[in-house]
Design a protein that fits this description.
With 176 residues, this protein is α+β, with helices and mostly antiparallel strands. Strand 2 (24-32) and strand 3 form a beta hairpin. Helix 2 crosses helix 3 (82-95). It is built from eight helices and four strands, in the order αββββααααααα. It is globular, with a radius of gyration of 20 Å. It has helices spanning 2-6, 64-71, 82-95, 103-108, 112-115, 123-127, 133-153, 159-162, and strands at residues 10-11, 24-32, 35-43, 54-55. The two termini are 27 Å apart. The longest helix is centred in the last third of the chain and has 21 residues, at 133-153. It has a two-stranded antiparallel ribbon.
C-alpha cells in the first residue's frame, strides 16, 4: 500500500463501524469459504455501482507505450505485438532488481510454480487433458511462445541478435 501511495495510486479510504481506515486491502493470498482463491483487491464493505475504488496513473502501467518509452522506438516498433513488447519490458525491468520502479510490484507477482499454467506442463501431465479443448489450447500456446522466442533470439535476424548488449542471453530466456 505504501508503494502504491508513493506512485500516485489512489485507493478509496473510508472507515465505518470501527473498522480499519482502509475499506480495501491488496492481498497476495485470499480465501473464500476457506479455500484459496488467488490475489487481488478486496472490498471490506459494499461498493456502490459506478463508485470509484482505485485510480492508477497510466505512467505506472506496463504497456506497449511504456515499453517504447523505456526500450526505445527502434526496439519496440509500431508493428510489434503488444504482448511481446510488454514481455520485453517486464523481463528488462525485473532484471534491474531494486533499480526498477516496479520492484515492489514484481515482488508480489506469483511465480510460475504458483500459477503453473498448463502450457508449461510436461507431456505426461498434458496427457491428462486429452479429449478436452484445453489440451490443444495448451499445446498451441506453448508452440506460439516458442516460435515468438525463436524469432526474437535468432542470431542473424532476431531482435536479441541485433541488440545483444540490451538483451543479454542469460536474462532474456524462454523461461523468463
Amino acid at each position: 500500500m505504501e508503494w502504491l501511495d508513493q506512485q500516485g495510486v489512489w485507493v478509496k479510504k473510508e472507515s465505518a463501524w470501527g473498522k480499519a481506515p482502509h475499506p480495501l486491502v491488496i492481498s497476495s493470498e485470499t480465501t473464500d469459504d476457506g479455500e484459496a482463491c488467488g490475489r487481488g483487491l478486496l472490498a471490506r464493505e459494499s461498493i456502490g455501482d459506478g463508485e470509484m475504488m482505485v485510480t492508477i496513473p497510466m505512467d505506472l502501467c506496463l504497456t506497449k507505450e511504456k515499453a517504447r518509452e523505456l526500450l526505445g522506438a527502434k526496439i519496440v516498433t509500431e508493428e510489434m505485438d503488444e504482448y511481446i513488447a510488454i514481455s520485453l519490458l517486464l523481463v528488462s525491468e525485473r532484471s534491474k532488481g531494486s533499480q526498477s520502479l516496479w520492484k515492489e510490484y514484481f515482488d508480489v507477482l506469483p511465480s510460475i510454480a504458483e500459477v503453473y499454467p498448463s502450457f508449461m506442463w510436461a507431456e505426461q501431465e498434458l496427457e491428462t487433458l486429452k479429449g478436452s479443448p484445453t489440451y490443444f489450447a495448451s499445446i498451441s500456446l506453448r508452440q506460439k511462445l516458442e516460435r515468438e522466442f525463436e524469432t526474437l533470439a535468432d542470431p542473424a535476424f532476431g531482435l536479441f541478435g541485433r541488440q545483444p548488449s540490451q538483451f543479454p542471453k542469460d536474462v532474456f530466456t524462454l523461461e523468463s
